[in-house]
Amino acid sequence: MKKILNEQLDISDTNPLKARYYDYKRFTYPWHFHSEFEIIYVEKGYGQGMIGDSITHFSDQSLFVLGSNLPHYVENPPEYTQQENLRVNGVIIQFEKDFMQYAFSHYSQFQTINRLLKNAQRGLLYSIADYPDIPNKIKCIPQKEGVEQIAEFLRLLDALTHTIPFKFISSPAYEPVPSRLHGRKIEKVIAYLNTHYTQDIRLEDVASYAAMNTTAFCRFFKENTGKTFKQHITDMRIGYACKLLLNEQWNISEICLECGFESVAHFNRCFKQHTEMTPTTYRKK
Prior knowledge:
The chain is α+β, with helices and mostly antiparallel strands. It has helices at about 80, 100-105, 110-120, 135-140, 145-160, 185-195, 205-210, 215-225, 230-245, 250-260, 265-275, 280-285; strands at about 5, 15-25, 30-35, 35-45, 45-50, 55-60, 60-65, 70-75, 90-95, 125, 165-170. The strands form three sheets. It has a six-stranded antiparallel sheet, with helices on one face. The protein has a three-stranded antiparallel sheet with strand order 6-5-8, with no helix packed on it. Helix 4 packs antiparallel against helix 5 (about 145-160), helix 7 (about 205-210) packs across helix 8 (about 215-225) and helix 9 (about 230-245) packs antiparallel against helix 10 (about 250-260).
């Protein structure tokens, strides 16, 4: 079972938005995260997705809005490899995590969009079959360039804030990585933790990696992420455990060790504190 992949997208301050059509035999990208926000429009297709610590199902005319650094993957059922007529297609839009951040957070005209992006840290799922103007807006964005593309994208975000119901995907407690990381040092630390969180990782080692003593590092980490170093590691391990619980071939003890917990009792206690259910109950649900 592969751990989470840190995907690096070709998006920057000077190229903050990328939109493209896709037409796949099936979704194949593994469980991953990236610092950019992502909108996945499924015009035709069905399957399930793992977003953060929760599973959801999607079908034709589904729309995912996924926050910065939110672990996720979507997949199609086995019949997609067995039946020639089955494909999945739509539009993917990815945009830089600080895209128009000042305007969104300071101007009253963008309050609802700012709220939408904050909610996206838990992952949002829309069913837009009854809102034909939304697919039309989405499908025109890859065709646009420059200011016109930005304008169409803002119209899409604005439309999503008006009267269209959505559901949160991840649980209220799930926030493995904050939506705003201030500075390259904290982003470097987070990237390091995201590839080592299942190991016996020591505070002293990570502080040394950041060229800081442990006291300064703990203060720095809490100020930049809103949580302690220990909380962050536990949250990442719980998210990975949720993914492994989907696989019936793994028993609870194996998942406990794979995710880096010191004992099954510790794993059960942390898992219940985070999800309000035991690993066994989560698997059954």
